[in-house]
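Journal club prep — side note

Before the paper discussion, L.F. wants everyone to see what a predicted structure for a comparable chain looks like in token form. Sequence:
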Amino acid sequence: MAYSKLRRCGAARKALIRDLVTDLILNGQIETTEAKAKELRKLADRMVTLAKVNTLASRRQAATLVRFEKDEKGQFAIQKLFSEIGPKFADRNGGYTRIIKTGFRRGDAASKAIIAFVD
């Protein structure tokens, strides 16, 4: 899958995407730039698809991208993905996230957006 460079080298881009995916799973929605949100949508939808399968192989594939972080309840992001988010979208065939444009950032006029899971 081809990804946008997001003005970063490969390692920094991978770290950024991993952080964004993990934060989206833990919080349900995040605010970021529109370009980052569009790249994040691809991987977030892929993680939900893996969570719907819920096999050992899909857990291992998801663990390569999702960071080992906890939410406020003490639940790890990978656990939340497979126990809450995956079953929530069991009947849906794609389009698990939505992007809402919110305007422009004040400092550099970058377009901002909120990316969130669909209810």
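L.F.'s comment for the group: Residues 12-117 form a domain with the 50s Ribosomal Protein L17; Chain: A, fold (CATH 3.90.1030.10). Keep this in mind when we get to the figures.
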